[in-house]
Amino acid sequence: MHKVSLITGDGIGPEIVGSVKKIFKKAGANVEFEEMEAGIEVYEREGDPLPKSVVDSIKKNKVALKGPITTPVGKGFKSVNVRLRKELNLYANLRPVKSFEGVESKYKNIDLVIVRENTEDLYAGIEHKIGDYACESIKLITRPACDRIVDFAVDYCNRLDRKRLTCVHKANIMKLSDGLFLDVFKEKTAVFKGNAADEKNEQKLKCDDLIVDACAMNLVINPEKYDTLVMPNLYGDIISDLCAGLVGGLGLVAGANIGEDYAVFEAVHGSAPDIAGKNQANPTAILMASIMMLEHLGEMETAKKIDNAIKEVLKKGEVRTPDLGGTSSTDEFTEAVCELL
Ligand code: NAI
Ligand code: MG
Questions:
Q1: pTM for the complete prediction?
Q2: Which atom of ligand 1 is nearest to the CA of 67?
Q3: Distance from the CA of 271 to the center of ligand 1, in angstroms?
Q4: CA distance 160 to 155
Q5: Fold equal for 1-99+251-341 and 105-247
Q6: Which residues, judged by CB distance below 6 Å to any ligand atom, belong to the binding site of ligand 1?
Q7: 122, 136 in Cβ contact below 8 A?
Q8: Which three-class secondary structure string do you get for 290-307?
């Protein structure tokens, strides 16, 4: 039995995590959850939204599944998500975005993977006031962090037989910081020669780079042309949500935060306060995260079983949450998946 830390989160967290628990039970998943609390209520009670016991639990179990956690805007405590990624050195954020059969969206046949650097860039949280006059946030990019994220992306492409790896940056303006990221990418991918867009290029993995604003436009016009994208933290955050929009929205897309020693799986979306407590949230994103977690644990059969059941329910389209144009509740969707299991 694998022991896994389970952080329920806040907002829609308890509802969608509840769905995972029911479905894991029904599927007979070989996983025992150690439930931990983090977030705004813990902050109000204990003064820290991320108590040491939560980090210790993940360090002990090595693997966690995490519900979304609210971060106050402009004031208050630092993001629990960002802190976890830094404290556990979860340097790679992997976000596969794939079209679901039967789910209406503007595009079909999307199969993208975002590899987001997860520990530095403007998200390092190094900022200060200069009196009342100005504020300064430091964009920190280091060579070791670039090295390991590019290595991770190349290794991922090789293992999963991905065909194209694109580095997304703004090195034309941030010549030093994004320049370093791009330099490392070019050094490490120099072996994969040739123009990635050239159809005559017969390299197994084709590598190229793209400026982030052009990337945003190209992903809206021609998303099918792209494959795996590696980028610094901030662009990764923004482009991930854009890509979620290509396949039907935030309710569908999952992510893994991966480091040398630990892995934390979560949905790409946040705590969705606008629909919290209404039994309306789509649990698919966190379920897809839990499937990535099962694969990480080597539980391939259970992962496949749950994946098939979710895709079957979405394909049939009879039971669908409001974000996908349906009228079903979180519980009804969960029940429909359980029935197929
Ligand atoms: P959000 O992702 O929570 O919601 C954006 C929109 O998408 C909302 O309209 C919401 O109802 C909808 N949505 C999101 N997930 C959904 C689901 N599973 N089913 C149906 N609809 C869904 O982003 P927002 O509102 O900007 O952030 C809310 C809070 O979440 C903030 O405090 C933010 O800091 C936090 N957050 C936490 C993350 C995490 O824990 N990893 C990631 C992103 C945001
Ligand atoms: Mg985000």
A1: 0.93
A2: 40
A3: 5
A4: 9
A5: yes
A6: 12, 68-71, 81, 250-251, 266, 269-275, 281-282, 285, 323
A7: no
A8: HHHHHHHCCCHHHHHHHH
> DSSP letters along 243-288, please?
HHHHTT-GGG-EEEEE-SS-EEEEESS---TTTTTTT---THHHHH
Per the CATH hierarchy, to which homologous superfamily does domain 105-247 belong?
Isopropylmalate Dehydrogenase (3.40.718.10)
pLDDT of residue 194: 64
Distance CA 138, CA 136 (A): 7
Superfamily per CATH, domain 1-99+251-341: Isopropylmalate Dehydrogenase (3.40.718.10)
Q: Give the closest residue to 235 by CA, choosing from 265, 262, 213.
A: 213
Quick one: which atom of ligand 1 is closest to the CA of 80?
40
pLDDT of 190 reads 87
Whose CA is closest to 266, among 22, 72, 77, 8? 8
**Any idea where the domains of the chain sit in the sequence?**
1-99+251-341, 105-247
Rounded to the nearest angstrom, the gap between the alpha carbon of residue 154 and the centroid of all alpha carbons in its chain is 18
Rounded mean pLDDT for each run of 10 residues along the chain, 341 residues in total: 96 97 98 94 91 96 96 84 92 96 92 97 93 97 98 95 96 98 95 70 86 98 96 97 94 96 96 97 98 97 98 96 96 98 95
